[in-house]
Write a structure and sequence with these properties.
By secondary structure, the chain is an alpha+beta fold. Helix content is 32%, strand content 14%. The chain is built from five helices and five strands; from the N terminus they run ββαβββαααα. It has a five-stranded mixed sheet with strand order 2-1-5-3-4, with helices on one face. The radius of gyration is 15 Å and the shape is globular. The relative contact order is 0.16. The structure holds FE2/S2 (inorganic) cluster (2 copies).
């Protein structure tokens, strides 16, 4: 099987997988990085949302081969040592999570949104397409506004 190199959460990694292997399965099954969650596998639920070269993307829709030489960040790479990212802290302060399954993807989508738009409106936040079956959308909104003000 071919080897692919990329940077994952600040560290160089090498993965031996088939050309068609999706990044989500390589992260979860090969590299043990389970923050990105599997929901649909086709880029719709956004539970797996992470960052590729700093932009939000869905690892279930991208092959490992397409990530060669690039930089992948998952929820595991967001904090700096013991210091949470401001969005993670806002999530705690607003007690956002319910079952928690969608939350890594929600947070990664929020971080990418704030990087592009530091002061989003409710409409901007509601345009995020991450699905939460527990319906935590109101608290997600509050947490993003809190992080924007931090
Ligand atoms: S698992 Fe649903 S978008 Fe990736
Ligand atoms: S917190 Fe349960 S799916 Fe979002």
């Amino acid at each position: 099987m071919p080897s692919y190199n990329f940077v994952l959460n600040g560290e160089a990694v090498t993965v031996d997988v088939a050309d068609s292997a999706s990044l989500l399965w390589a992260l979860r099954d090969t590299l043990g990085v389970t923050g990105p969650k599997y929901g649909c596998g086709v880029g719709v639920c956004r539970a797996c949302t992470s960052h590729l070269d700093g932009a939000a993307f869905q690892p279930c829709t991208v092959t490992v081969a397409e990530c060669a030489g690039r930089t992948v960040t998952t929820i595991e790479g967001l904090a700096t040592g013991d210091t949470l990212h401001p969005v993670q802290q806002a999530w705690i302060d607003e007690d956002v999570a319910q079952c928690g399954y969608c939350q890594p993807g929600q947070i990664m989508a929020a971080v990418a949104l704030l990087a592009e738009n530091p002061n989003p409106t409710d409409a901007d936040i509601d345009a995020l397409e991450n699905v939460c079956r527990c319906g935590t959308y109101v608290r997600i909104r509050r947490a993003i506004h809190r992080a924007a003000g931090a």
